[in-house]
Amino acid sequence: PQEMAGYAVTAGADFKAGTIKDTKTGETTPTGLPTENMVMLTLGDQGRIILRPSGTEPKIKFYYTAAADSMAAAEAMIDKMDEAMTALL
User: Phi-psi category of 26—alpha, beta or left, where left has phi over 0 and alpha has psi -120 to 50?
Assistant: First the structure.
């Protein structure tokens, strides 16, 4: 996606394929990490959304990171990310 939760997606990493794609330039580079069934969307300097299947349960896990001037602002960003990802399901 080009944006998620109102934030521009600047890169997408597919750890199973071992690649990171810059959404602006289209350039693909290797992750340099072990193969893993996981995807990560980088939202510029604002944060990241990571998706991976649970290893013990039949569900998908979402992890969110946020960078903001305050804890309240970071929590609001994470709430927006969670809403956006839930809407995709």
Answer: left
pTM reported for the whole predicted model: 0.88
Report the mean per-residue pLDDT for the chain: 94
Q: If you ran DSSP here, which 8-state letter would residue 77 be given?
A: H
- Give 88's DSSP letter: H
Give the span between the Cα atoms of 77 and 88, in whole angstroms. Answer: 17
Confidence of residue 1 (pLDDT cuts 50, 70, 90): confident
What sign does the dihedral 14-17-18-19 (CA atoms) show? negative
Residue 14 burial (CB count, 10 A): 16
Q: pLDDT (tens digit, 9 = 90+) per residue, 38-56?
A: 999 999 999 999 999 998 9
In whole angstroms, how far apart are CA 87 and each of 25, 31, 73, 83? 28, 28, 21, 6
> Which pairing describes strands 7-8 and 11-14: parallel, antiparallel, or unpaired?
unpaired
